[in-house]
Amino acid sequence: MTPVETLNPDALRAQLLDRRGKLRTAVDASGETSSLMNLLKEVDLALEKLAKGTFGLCETCRDAIEADRLVVDPLIRNCLDHLTAAEQRVLEHDLDLASEVQRNLLPKRYLSAAGWETAFHYEPVGSVSGDYCDLIVPEGESSLYFFLGDVTGKGVAASILMAHLHAIFRSLLKSSQPLTELVERANRLFCEGTLTTHFATLACGRANNAGEIEVCNAGHCFPLVVRNGNVERIPSTGLPLGMFCNGEFVSQKLTIARGDSVVLYSDGLTEVKDASDTLYGEQRLITLVSNKRRLAPQELIRACLEDLDRFRSGVPKPDDITILVVRRT
Predict the structure, then answer these.
(1) Is 254 exposed, middle or buried (0-12, 13-18, 19+ CB in 10 A)?
(2) Does residue 290 share a domain with residue 253?
(3) pTM assigned to the model
(4) pLDDT tens-digit profile of 95-135?
(5) What is the radius of gyration, based on Cα positions, of the chain?
(6) Strand ranges (DSSP E) for the chain?
(7) Among residues 250, 243, 197, 215, which one has the least CA distance to residue 324?
(8) What is the residue range of 275's domain?
(9) 231: how many CB neighbours lie within 10 A of its CB?
(10) How many domains, the chain?
(11) Can you point out the beta strands (E) in 21-165?
């Protein structure tokens, strides 16, 4: 499959034509400056490549340009292996800035609110991550909202969509509403502002000071609830966000005792492989969580990471890893 097929040619063509129209308006208003005319030529070249079926191919080696880079900038002409020295410096600077922005979007490392304590581990496989992790205590409410999601793709494009999801939920939580309605509204906004080739799995919930939790799982890894000495899985009850604008979501309500926890994670954890190509897997995580269930959130996360390192024995991690633990105090 070529890059243009992966990214949806109709959406790309519409995006480029929109850019061309705005550039033409700017040229007519300010005159044919060299910078504007060069941009116009770049857009025309990209449209020509779309028509010929060569869009997304590196002009140096003719291999496919990285799809996540094309999402961010459809005018790029070379793959990462064939950037000029100047382009490489610009890319490195941009990645450093993107990484800093993403770190600033993360919640407090150890947050306590509404009778709950939390901790999380956020580890991009590269400079930036497509994982979404947030903890929100709305003003005037005695509730804690928790979110962990995974946007399709990797790199800068995925990190931009992660920031988009972060902004959506932060904005929507300014008005009180049921959890399922919150997710449905977020899904519509995410769907309307995202290419059809991208979506995000999401597990989220609301916890109050009475020990009641409500969890919604939209196509994400099953959250684990430690309750009465057992570990329960909360299955997916809806499609990922962004697949259909009018998606419906349901939630599951539970009450847990003091000392019990909810563990959320991205598939970058369970899909790690060892030297024999064996998956770490959900069952190994469940066993560990069950054995370490009395630990505080940050200690439980540390135990998970130590077990993961023992398992993989130096084999590189293939994907972003995020773990979030919410424990009733």
Answers:
(1) middle
(2) yes
(3) 0.78
(4) 777 788 888 899 998 999 999 999 999 999 888 899 999 99
(5) 22
(6) 112-113, 116-123, 131-136, 143-151, 200-208, 212-218, 224-227, 230-233, 252-255, 261-265, 321-328
(7) 215
(8) 107-328
(9) 18
(10) 2
(11) 112-113, 116-123, 131-136, 143-151
